[in-house]
Amino acid sequence: MSITLTSGELELLGKELDTIRQDVLDDRGARDAAYIRRLVRVQRGLELGGRAMLMGRRSRTSWLLGTAALTVAKVLDNMEIGHNVLHGQWDWMRDPKIHSSTWEWDHVTPAAQWKRAHNDTHHRFTNIIGQDNDLGYGIMRVDEAQPWQPRYLAQPAWNFVTACIFEYGIAMFDLDLGDHIRDKRTMTPEKKAEVRVALVKARKQLTKDFVFYPALSGRAWKSTLAANATANLLRNLWSHSVIMCGHFPEGVQAFEQESLDRNETRGQWYLRQMLGSANISGPRSLHLMTGNLSHQIEHHIFPDLPSNRYFEIAPRVRAVFDRFDLTYNSRPLVRQVASAWHKVVRLSLPNGWLAETNRRNLLPQLRRLTVRPA
Q1: What does residue 261 show for φ and ψ, rounded to 5 degrees?
Q2: What domain count does the chain have?
Q3: Per-residue DSSP letters for 166-212?
Q4: Record's PANTHER family (predicted)?
Q5: What burial letters (b/e) apply to 114-125, b meaning 16+ CB within 10 Å?
Q6: Is 345 among the domain residues?
Q7: Does residue 262 lie within any of the structural domains?
């Protein structure tokens, strides 16, 4: 199915989505502020409770409960709180305790470095091969148009390793270390300073989880260390899966820089975000644990809106897709994860060795898409 929207239709699409965005901006207020403040309290309570249950001598049940509470706390801190606070979604509250300029999260990547790589680069160059590091994290083949090389056979294994150490992988590509290694670049003094800041943050995180809290547990330090390692691993696997579901399943489009123009209209930018994102369907509890990135389409269209509003506006956004005969890519979690992994394996092989699922011919429309100027 090819998509052929006229310039007038693209302008109308942009106006319809602008209206949805403005409706939320006009309505946000006390209930939104109460939501994020309550969530921060819950997250901190879960972390303190989990840490307390992991102190001293304990039963198997208390270890499992403490590890589960700590895992949920870490997921909430990274996904629904940290990611969205650092996007500036709550800056309008003018609360210095919940503001993108002051927030630091339980993650090895320093907040300032993540904001530059994620907010300024990923959301600007969404799914553009060679410019969006979130697309394959700079180590994977992400589109059939990329020439196949034997090294890509290892990408399923690389992807699994990346999932296990996901926060460290993010820290490395937020620093553009992969580009420096591949291109044999010499680090500038500014880049060396960034690396030092990242190493300091990583040391603090490692000390907190693998030295300080185990030491507080006395003779039970091994058990606490195992619980902290388990919570970090589960948080990494979960966040990697959620992000893969939003960017990499079959049907999500990648774009080649040479086919894009820099004079992009608002409607064209919206359309690129719509074609380059996918959602996860499920209950409200799932949306909470994904940081509402289960609404990746809505997030990429409106990255500055409070995340608790994505669920509310999703039906209106989907109606826009329907009116313009666009496919709203949304599946349950298991199906979306399976689709993303299928694509990882398929693109690790030469073209044609493994069939693509949900194949659609979008090339006529992709040639119309452009990159919004800085």
Answers
A1: -110, 150
A2: 1
A3: HHHHHHHHHTTHHHHHHTTPPPPHHHHHHHHHHHHHHHHHHHIIIII
A4: DELTA(5) FATTY ACID DESATURASE C-RELATED, FATTY ACID DESATURASE 2
A5: bbebbbebbbeb
A6: yes
A7: yes
